[in-house]
Amino acid sequence: MCRAVASLIEEGMEKGIEKGIEKGELQKLVKQVARKMSKGKTIDEIVDDLEEDYDEVSDIYNIAAKYAPAYNVEEILKEIHENMSHKQAVK
C-alpha cells in the first residue's frame, strides 16, 4: 500500500511539474507576442519572428489586442485559460 501511495504522489508531482512548465512556456509566448504587438507588428510578422504556430499566435494576438496598449500579461493569461476551459467543457 505504501508503494502505491508513493507512486501516486510521484505521478501527481510529475503532472504538476509538466503543467507548470506548460504554463511558463505559455506565459513567455504571451509576453513575446505582447511585446511585438506594442511595436506594431502584425500576426504574420510575429509568427515569422517567433517561429511559432500561426493558430496559437493568432489566438494570443486576438485576446491581447483587447488589452492594448498596456498588454497586462496576467489578464491575457487569465482570459486564455478561461477560453481553454470553455473549449474543453464544450467537447
Question: What does this entry look like structurally?
Answer:
With 91 residues, the protein is mainly α. It has a domain at 41-91. It has 4 helices and no strands. Helix 1 packs across helix 4, helix 2 (43-50) packs across helix 3 and helix 3 (54-64) packs across helix 4. It is elongated and about 55 Å long. The model has no long low-confidence stretch (mean pLDDT 92).
Short description:
By secondary structure, this protein is mainly α.
Keywords, please?
91 residues; elongated; mainly alpha
Poorly predicted ranges (pLDDT <50, ≥5 residues)? none
Helical coverage, percent range: over 70%
Could you tell me the strand content as a percent range? Answer: under 5%
pLDDT average, as an integer?
A: 92
Please summarize the sheet with the most strands.
none
H and E order = HHHH
The overall strand count is 0
| End-to-end C-alpha gap | 36 Å
List the helices and strands and how they pair.
Elements lengths: L1 H37 L4 H8 L3 H11 L8 H18 L1
Helix pairs in contact: 1-3, 1-4, 2-3, 3-4
